[in-house]
Amino acid sequence: MSKWLLRGLMFAALMVIVRLLQGAMINVWETRATMISAILVAVYAVVALLWGYVDGRSDAKKNPDPERRADLAMTWLLAGLFAGVVSGAVAWFIGLFYNNLYVEGLLNELTTFAAFTALLVFLSAIVGVGLGHWLVDRKAPPMERRREDDDRADTDVFAAVRDDRDDNYSTAQTGAEAEPHTSPVAVAEDDETRRDDQTRRDN
């Protein structure tokens, strides 16, 4: 079973229990309906926060590098959406037979109430995940990161081109130094000798 589905099922079931308790307690203490609802919602949020905290600590210990950690935000977003829709549908169905459960129409349960549940689960869990990451990271030794030049050494095309150009230039310069140089005086003497030989042949 995937992570988000497990969490979604658990929080869907928990929300149904919370709403059943809410209906029963409000029927007993009608004047304290607001306080009862607030306390139950707070307890639900704390459970999501604690589960998110456990996920965050486990993920941070398993992957010290923050860039390699799991996408827990998406996990908890899907879990919250699933919990909201399923718990709304189940609560509406129970409300058909149990009058003490405060439910609205099916459309409202699958939209407004589902969105509230999804947001509550997601925000609470993400706060817990962030807290778990932070508590582990603050005690972890600093990670040794490779220098940027080392990371780019194998992919720096321009550096390779510069190296080839420098090698070609050094080879050309060495070849030029090895080529013999002819003195201007020697060239003039060779030309004069050729002219004298040509004059003797003509005479």
TrEMBL record:
Claim: Transmembrane helix is one of the keywords in the record: yes
Chain intervals for the UniProt region annotation (Disordered): 162-203
Keywords noted in UniProt: Membrane, Transmembrane, Transmembrane helix
InterPro entries from the UniProt entry: B-4DMT-like (IPR047958)
Positions of transmembrane segments: 33-54, 75-98, 110-136
Biased composition (Basic and acidic residues): 192-203
Listed name of the protein: Transmembrane protein
Organism expressing this protein natively: Mycolicibacterium poriferae
